[in-house]
Amino acid sequence: MIAVSVPPESAQDFERIAKDEGRNKSELFREMLRVYRAYREAGLFESLQRYGASRARVLGVRDESDVERLIKAARGD
């Protein structure tokens, strides 16, 4: 069980949304949590993409052949 304190306006909004969607508050909370997790994962993925793109630019990686070249160099081939 979780108890959460929110301003009265937020509680009213939450109850109104649950009613409008024909869900009970527990179902709505679970859905909100699922959506928030997906939002956070997308943000992390985008952050990793930006980091990878930045490192690729620094290393001069433009395509797969550049990746293969770097792997061979790291292995000492």
H and E order: HHH
How many domains would you count in the coordinates? 1
Sheet/helix structural class = mainly alpha
- Percent range for helical residues? over 70%
Mean pLDDT across all residues, rounded? 94
Uncertain runs are none
- End-to-end distance, in Å? 58 Å
Please describe the biggest sheet, giving its number of strands, its sense, and whether it closes into a barrel. none
Strand content: under 5%
- The whole-angstrom Rg is 23 Å
The total count of strands amounts to 0
**Anisotropy-based shape:** rod-shaped
Describe the structure.
This protein has 77 residues and is mainly α. The relative contact order is 0.05. It is 79% helix and 0% strand. The termini are far apart. The protein has one domain. The mean pLDDT is 94. The protein contains three helices and no strands. The chain is rod-shaped and about 65 Å long.
Blueprint of the fold:
Blueprint: H1 8-21, H2 25-59, H3 64-75
Concise account of the structure shown:
With 77 residues, the protein is mostly helical. Helices cover 79% and strands 0% of the residues.
What characteristics describe this protein?
single chain; 77 residues; rod-shaped
